[in-house]
Amino acid sequence: MRYLYALSYCKKTFDVLTLHTQMLSSLTYRIIGTILLAGAMVQPLNAQDGGSTAYNFLNVTSSAKIYGLGGVNISLVDDDINVIDQNPALLGSEMSNTASVNYMRYLGGSNFAGARYGRSAGERGAWAASIQYFGYGSMKETLPDGSVVGSFSPKDVAFGGTYSHDITSRLRGGIALKALYSGYAEYSAFAIATDLGINYYDSDRDLSLSVVLANLGGQVKRFNQAYDRLPFDVRLGWSQTFGTFPVRFSVTAWNLTKWKLPYFETGDGSNSATAVLKEGFMSNLFRHLVFGADLVAHPNYYISLGYNYKTRTDMSTYSRNFLSGFSLGAGLKVKSFGFGIAFAQPHSGGSTFMLNLGLNIDEIL
């Protein structure tokens, strides 16, 4: 029992913060059918009570380009293999024999790192494999009465496999399967998660539209008696450039399984400040939306800017600054090598930094 308090504290802290073508086509249509069926089940799933939401590290992207666009984007069509952690339907044969490693310095002394590799599967399919590690640094191990009895280093590890298939010249479906291991002190848990995605891309207009069902699944092995739910989500995304203007705009709607996302404004942090509940229509609307814009003047470099209103409002007024909610990214490609960085400062006391290194193996052989 001595670790239960530390386990609960850790979880709450992070919450803040080749086959035949016919067979492949059949699989993809089953994917579409599953997406439609699961979408119809969203309300019943949310109506169930009991259990707490955990595994929120699944919502942290491994792509510096995505992080620079606000942290959530399911419609960005790009040759960066890391973007597929947002939508498995973004994986394609254009990413064949590419590999990438990523590192992120997150809040509270947390360090995240991972690797991903992708390859084409026939003329219309592609697959990828990945591993992602989430380490949260050292934490005090305490008893329920608050006495410190040691320290521990909690961690989560996600092993992933992704498959996508071109249904038509413009429509692609994808599925991702993730095995999740968590180790907090002497406690451990194991879960399975699935992402289902569809992407429509019109290259003539550079228009991309996506739908994703994220984090379907559940725990196979629990930490203790309590059952922790995965952060299931429904997401919609739009990305597009207009004419010859070299900027691509994106809007992503997420957390669509729940409309009301109230928060408290806490003033300047003084004892006399009164917390004010914000739950109006416009407040809820914008907390569901992530805005992004990236410069696409040349395929060998980019600059991205994102704004996540929910990130900003999750911070109390006195602990955030002008940069809260904003993120900035940049990338450069030199021959077969790609490099990307991103930066954000969710609140005045903590900054986050992400780095991606990519390699197209075919181009160096």
Describe, in plain words, how this protein is organized in 3D.
- The longest helix has 20 residues, at 21-40.
- The chain has 7 helices and 20 strands.
- The chain has helices at 4-16, 21-40, 42-47, 64-68, 281-286, 309-314, 361-364; strands at residues 52-53, 98-105, 111-121, 125-135, 139-142, 148-152, 155-166, 171-184, 187-202, 207-221, 228-229, 233-240, 247-253, 263-265, 276-278, 289-298, 301-308, 326-334, 337-347, 350-360.
- The protein has one domain (4-364): monomeric porin ompg (Porin).
- The protein is of the alpha+beta class.
Short characterization:
With 365 residues, this protein is α+β, with helices and mostly antiparallel strands.
Write the layout of secondary structure elements.
Layout: H1 4-16, H2 21-40, H3 42-47, E1 52-53, H4 64-68, E2 98-105, E3 111-121, E4 125-135, E5 139-142, E6 148-152, E7 155-166, E8 171-184, E9 187-202, E10 207-221, E11 228-229, E12 233-240, E13 247-253, E14 263-265, E15 276-278, H5 281-286, E16 289-298, E17 301-308, H6 309-314, E18 326-334, E19 337-347, E20 350-360, H7 361-364
Parallel strand pairs: 1-11
Antiparallel strand pairs: 2-3, 2-20, 3-4, 4-7, 5-6, 7-8, 8-9, 9-10, 10-12, 12-13, 13-16, 14-15, 16-17, 17-18, 18-19, 19-20
